[in-house]
Write a structure and sequence with these properties.
Blueprint: H1 2-12, H2 14-17, H3 28-40, H4 47-63, H5 68-86, H6 91-115, H7 123-156
Amino acid sequence: MFLFLDGSISQVFSTHLFRYSAVMVSHLVVLWLICAILFEDRIDMPLARWAAVMGAVFDLYYTGIFGVYVFIFPLVVYLTRVLTRYISPNFLSGLLIYFIDITLVEALGYLASRMVHLTNMAGSTFLVTTLGPTLALNLALFVILYFPIRWVYNWLN
């Protein structure tokens, strides 16, 4: 559901999210993966496989390059599980973990685009025009959606 919501948000708010001076990319799929780990990690879920499938769908539907997010999303799941071993999951630590994961997703996506010559944007330009605004948007979405998502997970249990 969050995969299609990402596309809908991007389409509806495209004039506000994709400007020349700042590009904000919604990563609700990553939010779903992080929340699944934070709220349900004690249950043995095949989350890495789901992340790979979501990465494949994301690659084919949004990027057109197969293989980038197929590896990035499972890497995010792995990193989040490692971080939750050392940091007890709560709202603030979840915000920190989400910050790290969004930075990883955007940076690896940028590096992959640079490697296949889809972009020629300088690293400093990427940091200012894409990474910063994307972090701001996604952290705001995390703050807004954290408690409703936690309520849904508690209700389902």
